[in-house]
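Quick note —
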Amino acid sequence: DSYSANASARYRFEEGALAGLSLYVNYNWLDQTVDTADPSQFILEELRDLRYGADYYSGPFTLQLEQRHHDSVLQPYDQTRFEGRYDIRPGPLATLSASLSHDYTDFQNSGEERHLTRATIRAAGRIGDGLDISGRIVYRDERSKLSTDLAGFEQTFDVTWRKGKTTITGSLFNGVLDTDETDSV
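Predicted structure written out below.
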């Protein structure tokens, strides 16, 4: 059996000196039980996940700072995330955004620490009636204390066509990532 609950709240300042600032919190709770002759044969999850942060927007700019405490039997970790984003609408049916983010994750059980920096450019738009296209280019640089570092580019291109109740979607993904040489036994 799994028992879970979720609670979240967000408050956005619309006026005054703090206009554009939002504060938020999200809490997830999960407990699992098993009724069996030998419960030691199972690893059951007990999860308490607290995520909170603030974001601030001013015109096309958004800044975000977020902290996460993932208290878990299976894989506990703490994570800090920073992101800056710039969003514009070059036309009534098009969007363009650029972002830069950095995540630091500390996995307590293994001693692993991971730094992930991403620079992303996204574009989306509608061509004609019922044809949507979007694309994304991501540069990622991932540094790890215990495993292999990697860096490189990922590209995604999506096309969606709609006519009446029919929807056809196609996606292309390409990743070119460089990493250190590793040996395994």
